[in-house]
Amino acid sequence: MRGPLRLSPDSYKEEIRAERDLLWKPGRVGNSPVPWNAYLELLFFVLVALPEFSAAWRWWTGDPSLALVDWFYVGMNFGALVPLAVLWIFIKKVNQKTAQNLQDEMDALNRENKK
Predict the structure, then answer these.
(1) SS3 state at 93
(2) Residue 51 lies in a domain
(3) Is position 19 within any domain?
(4) How many whole angstroms separate alpha carbon 111 and alpha carbon 48?
(5) Whole-model pTM above 0.85?
(6) Which member of 43, 63, 74, 109 lies 3.0 to 4.6 Å from 58 by CB, making a disulfide possible if both were Cys?
């Protein structure tokens, strides 16, 4: 059995609203054109890519510590970063589409109740 027993006719709408609100969606603060979570995502991906940036900087500048770079580790990290970024973009799009579908269902239920 899933979820609590429904006692009111609006409980289904409340359940849909709760499911919609649990999805990761962009949120805006004030009049900012950039969602607040975009800054967190950027920070996350920069921190994940930091070893690659460090190795590339050492190579570019001819740093003698370049010999200490574990290129296999850098390659594996980069090989994981690219699919992670692609998967994250896909998850965000699916969440937005699912949230819109749930909102459409709530709107349809509201129209039925007004009749």
Answers:
(1) helix
(2) yes
(3) no
(4) 47
(5) no
(6) 63
